[in-house]
Amino acid sequence: MRSAAHAPNDARPGPQEHAAPPPPGSVRRHTTDTIEVMSSNLVIVESPAKAKTIKKYLGKDFEVLASYGHVRDLVAKEGAVDPDRDFAMKYEIIQEKNKDRHVDAIERAARKAKSLYLATDPDREGEAISWHLHEILKERGVLDGKAVHRAKFFEITKNEIQNAIANPERLSRELVDAQQARRALDYLVGFNLSPLLWKKIMPGLSAGRVQSVALRLICDREAEIRAFVSQEYWTLEVAAAKDGQPFRARLVEFEGEKIEADVGNSRFSITTESRARAIEQRLKELCAGQLAVANVEKKPRSRSPQAPFRTSTLQQAAANRLGFTARRTMQTAQRLYEGVDFGEGPVGLITYMRTDSTSLAAEAIGQIREFIGRTYGARNVPPQPRSYANKQANAQEAHEAIRPTNVSITPEQLRGRIDEDQWRLYQLIWQRTVASQMPNALYEQTTATLLPGGAAAGGARADGRGATAAAAGAPAVLRASGSVLKDPGYLAVYNVDAADDEEPAADGEGGRLPPLEPGDRPALTAVLPEQHFTQPPPRYTEASLVKALEERGIGRPSTYASIIETLRFRKYVEADKRNFVPTDTARIVIDFLVKFFPSYVDYDFTARLEEDLDGISRGDKDWVPVMREFWHPFIDRVKHVETSVSREEVAQARLLGTDPKSGRPVSVRVGQYGPFAQLGTKDDDDKPKFAGLRPHQKMDTITLEEALQLFELPRALGQLPTGEKVSVGVGRFGPYIKVGDKFVSLKIDDPYTLDFPRALEVIEEKKRADAERTIRDYGVDGVQVLKGRFGPYITDGKRNAKIPKDREPGSLSLEECRALLAVAPPRGANRFGRKKTAAPAAGAATAEAGTTTAAAALKAPRKTAKKSAAAVAGAAPTRAAAKAAAPKKAARPTAKEPTAKRTPTRSAKKNAG
């Protein structure tokens, strides 16, 4: 198969094939509400939910089928992208979730139809899906003599759908090329970097063009936090009251010195408690229980509504206000877009949710303004519609911001009629959209300058001459500020502080003040010195990471949800509440990439490459030269690092000290199964000992004492009356108790503190559990019939066999069980009988440790890999695959940047690099 760049001119999407209007007798438009259908038409969309909604608007003469997301992808092996042939790509139909059946169904319907409408999503990914469908159907000879059209719509409403069908477009070669270039880049980066990480660091790792840069942001922030040195500073406020109404004022000047507490610029006037206490005492003496109002200044102040949501701002606001992950936000928005049934059949409630635009269609603005006037009064309709400049470079994808398709469908009407996630997100979108076309919120900002009011104040006058003049010569100046909301404007709809969304809150609004006039003498009730310490920069949350990526121009907002999920899935980050903390493995991966591939994890380089991809989508650049410019330096660098950098250079071993008992050095480093401690060296007469770090331990913070404790396992606990010895240890699959030659997994107990009585309890619990799951034990060769997770089964410890449906599990004879076991695959094999190998658990004790493990007996849950490492983008490799990875032409993973949600069930999408 050939890519768009290599297809002959007549095969490439272009005006020749797609620009023409529907042929006579196919579709004839009379009004925006009616379409006269004269022949059979097939419409292809992405999801079945969307198909159901659209079918309702088009009627019986239109068949609407779903592609179920992407239909083709690069072949799952090396050579899917060929740099030597201008990056020609080899595609195949996705072999998962009956994708071939969906394509066959589309083919059968297309053969019967006279017109085909490719109506997938209106972005790069949707364009690519339409192009792939077009190419598949063309190769199968289905399109001969048929009219093929590209239909684009940004909301699923009757008028929008019918207008899109009546006014079709052509497939965009530019968008297809941009998507292919992005896919090829991500494939080549992941396909070459991931095996290098396996070889130099540990198996199971992945690298991606944007994923790795996002991870670098998190790791760089963590480095800032760890290097941060906190600084002490003090502020002084006074508590005062006038006519029984309390308020506070802040000290801004003392004995001619400006009192600063500027955290952003690290300027602090009071840095010790002794000075703060001295000023406190002096203020009390100066005020003698009273303040004097020197000046009161009142100014009007306004706060503007925020622009309607685009993809990234919706993700940020939903994270901050609703606690949604980016993936949860996009999945919920997808359902709202495709159609929700709240009693009137499926209705698309919002416009397309993958967009960089902040603009609204003129028709939508008119409807919103009319709704505001009808609901909130004419005074809340601005004289002119509001428009919002797009602050993002290369804004693209959809032509509108995210908005309700019908503003008259209020959140109150939907409460209890759609699920809670959908309702909360719809309410957020509806409120933000309506508020964006309402007036500013108006405040009255009051600032009062106060001086010490006692006789010791030096006779400073408070006569209204102005704040500066009145304070001249005063030994201390204080300031109180507050605001009063005069007109809520847009806050009547969207009453939320901007800090709860994606933007910082406005400063200086303060609280409420009592009526103050120059010459007033409010009572001083207390002087309040307060100690503070500067704080390190905060760790990234989903919302702040999305904002940082977008501000730097890294990746596309529609990919952020998948990128973040990949970081979690790969165990590159851990969640501390809602904050991302990089793991030891993540930091070593990033240190490796920064040291040996600095350009490819550079923020500016990645942003410039994103601009090149956007240039391709606009038709300003050709995709093949862009690929060449990236590829040749990159692959040369990969080959150099592969041959010249040793594993020891990457391991980042940290020496902790010397074991006082043996005198041998103790260090920590990363091995095949994650971070571990090592006692001794390979040059010692005795082999070194190894122990995996505990989950909460970090390589750069673990102490010598904590590391030495790891070597206390396995630890003898006692002996049973039968003579069997009981010990506790930690293996590849976690902590365990060993009884004779059998193992019992520890679920909640700490192996380092477990005592013998508690171990006996755990052993008894295991015996009871085993007895409850045993249906019949034949007492020969370990043959048993057991209750399993998916029903009864036969086992001998080596093979598991299904029980015939027409037999009672306990009625089987030993001979029947042996016959069934004889034809069953060995445990650990897939359904074709081939042996499976699973990636080792990160953080477990290393294999080179030489310590006792409970590998066979722990009976940890077995996970079946749906695809091999070569087939799954960035999938965890087997040891054999990792060993075979670099110089040989072995199968390597296809690693691509995650894209917007298309086929959520596809593991390759989840694992994308």
Describe the structure.
This protein is 33% helix and 20% strand. It is an alpha+beta fold. It has 25 helices and 35 strands. The longest helix has 28 residues, at 173-200. The model is unreliable at 1-39, 455-467, 504-509 and 836-913 (pLDDT under 50).
Strand content: 15-25%
Major sheet description: 7 strands, antiparallel
In quaternary terms, these chains amount to single chain
Low-pLDDT parts are 1-39, 455-467, 504-509, 836-913
Number of strands: 35
Structural class call reads alpha+beta
Radius of gyration: 34 Å
Overall shape: globular
Q: Into which percent range does the helicity of residues fall?
A: 25-40%
Précis, in short:
With about 900 residues, the protein is α+β, with helices and mostly antiparallel strands.
Describe the secondary structure blueprint for this structure.
Elements: H1 15-18, E1 27-29, E2 35-37, E3 41-45, H2 48-58, E4 62-66, E5 72-74, E6 81-82, E7 88-89, E8 91-93, H3 99-112, E9 115-118, H4 124-139, E10 147-150, H5 158-166, H6 173-200, H7 211-227, E11 232-242, E12 245-254, E13 257-258, E14 261-262, E15 267-268, H8 273-287, E16 291-303, H9 311-322, H10 326-338, E17 340-341, E18 346-347, H11 362-376, H12 411-414, H13 420-435, E19 441-452, H14 467-471, E20 476-487, E21 523-533, H15 542-551, H16 557-569, E22 573-576, E23 579-582, H17 584-596, H18 603-618, H19 623-644, H20 647-651, E24 654-658, E25 665-671, E26 674-679, E27 689-692, H21 704-710, E28 715-719, E29 725-731, E30 734-739, E31 742-745, H22 756-773, E32 774-777, E33 784-788, E34 791-795, E35 800-802, H23 814-822, H24 879-884, H25 907-910
Parallel strand pairs: 3-4, 3-9, 9-10
Antiparallel strand pairs: 1-2, 5-8, 6-7, 11-12, 11-21, 12-13, 12-20, 14-15, 16-19, 17-18, 19-20, 22-23, 24-25, 25-26, 26-27, 28-29, 29-30, 30-31, 32-33, 33-34, 34-35
Helix pairs in contact: 4-6, 6-18, 6-19, 7-17, 9-13, 9-15, 10-13, 10-16
